[in-house]
Amino acid sequence: MPDRPAVRPQHNPPRDNRPRDNRPRDNQTGSTSKQIIDEISGLNNLQNYDIRTLVKHAEEFGPFLRNRRLETNQIRKFLDAINRLKAQLTQGDTEGSVPKDDSALFADIETDIVLLKPKLAYAAARQEAAKPLSEVMAVAIDRVHSLKDFERLVQLVESIIAYHKAEGGR
């Protein structure tokens, strides 16, 4: 018989067939979104959300969502709707001979802003990872009563998504 090199048996631990709990194990689970919700809930209008606090919250919340494996495509309809509203505002400002004031511009998009909540609720129902974002955005949308509030909502969404992507989210 020819000499064969000794083959080491591979040690394969017994398979654990218990269902896996893939939820994040960090200590911040829920506390990051709760902190943001508490901050926004204390405001009458979203424009009063201090921009430095907003960025600090987004800096924590973006990675939190990434750790929950939230993918941008899971909230694509929401992001697309925000971008359409932004585009509608710039077009609405230039339509006609008389420029619209802020309250008239806001009145044009208010219904669509409120209807963002069901889009997020649908995303959260389809994917558990979207639930904290849905909860935060629902509270924020409830505080949007003017064009300045909407601008702050856009800043919040863009900041969260930027930090989510910076953390490696797709």
What are the key terms here?
170 residues; elongated; 61% helix; 7 helices; mainly alpha
Describe, in short, the structure shown.
The chain is mainly alpha-helical and 170 residues long. It has helices at residues 31-41, 51-67, 76-94, 102-114, 116-126, 131-142, 147-166.
Describe the structure.
The chain is mostly helical and 170 residues long. The protein has one domain. It is 61% helix and 0% strand. It has seven helices and no strands. α1 packs antiparallel against α2 and α5 runs antiparallel to α6. The relative contact order is 0.19. About 8% of the residues have low confidence.
Annotate the secondary structure layout.
Elements (H helix, E strand, L loop, with lengths): L30 H11 L9 H17 L8 H19 L7 H13 L1 H11 L4 H12 L4 H20 L4
Low-confidence stretches: 16-29
N- to C-terminal distance:
56 Å
Percent range for β-strand residues: under 5%
Q: What class, by secondary structure content?
A: mainly alpha
Give the tally of structural domains: 1
- If you compute it from the alpha carbons, what radius of gyration comes out, rounded to the nearest whole angstrom? 22 Å
Q: Please give the count of helices.
A: 7
- Element string (H = helix, E = strand): HHHHHHH
Q: What level of helicity do the residues show?
A: 55-70%
